[in-house]
Amino acid sequence: MSASEFDLIRQYFTASTDARADVALGIGDDCALLRAAPGEALAVSMDTLVEGRHFAVGTDPQALGHKALAVNLSDLAAMGARPAWATLALTLPSADEQWLGAFMAGFSALARQHGVQLVGGDTTRGPLSITVQVHGFVPEDKALRRAAGRAGDRLFVSGTLGDAALALQYARAQKPLEPSLQARLDRPTPRIELGLLLAGRARAAIDVSDGLVADLGQVCTASGVG
Question: Is the pTM of this model over 0.85?
């Protein structure tokens, strides 16, 4: 990389998100020092996005920054957890500062919206891939678990199903796509507020990322119901 890793950290990551009171030490040391919320369980999730597999070559980096964080926040929402911290590992073909600035603009905007502080991560050279880990808090007795479903429970889904899949189908076929549908693919909305509302009220939940039938099947299997 033409710019050193330390220069990239200082310029794009150190102050990219708002500071939280529960972060004793953030980016810049060997480890972050974080204060766990008393009386609550720590919810942790992580996803990796690889260019050419999870997103197309040339994808808008600002939308990609949003999506990389959003898919992880959706996992916290599915547990009824309140977001707190994130770490980011980037593998970059080169130190493209224009791309990195746009990526972090999308990442940071969503982080600020949900009170998430970036507390660490890593950068290295190689084929483009993005790994985000998120951390949140939820009272242990109110966490939404896949295995807690019971016979007779009502099933609900938020939003509309199939929008992102349809947008992807159109994109692969190089068909024109209306902006609202494109946004469902590029800038998904993590249902944090709904997850917090359901914690302690609903029994089971799951982030629908593989389709309703597949993900509902996971809940049924975990809960021992049909």
Answer: yes
